[in-house]
Amino acid sequence: MITTLQQNRAKIIIPTPALGELLVKGREAAPEWLAILHKSRHFRISGVSVHPAPFWRRMAWKW
Predict the structure, then answer these.
(1) How far is residue 1's CA from residue 3's CA, in Å, rounded to a whole number?
(2) What is the CA radius of gyration of the chain?
(3) Which of 15, 19, 41, 61 is deepest in the core (most CB within 10 A)?
(4) Domain boundaries, the chain
(5) Is the pLDDT of residue 63 over 60?
């Protein structure tokens, strides 16, 4: 799927609430995933702000 999107120069828009959930599921890999998303031109993080996502990831770990 990613290859097809790259060939079509498509973008995947990730809302910040979904990003927060992804980072929670990612646990230790979350910082690496976030770096990959930021570096790729095929992903765009959209929403109020990118900054709350890592905050919510930390909060979810405490629950």
Answers:
(1) 5
(2) 12
(3) 19
(4) 2-62
(5) no
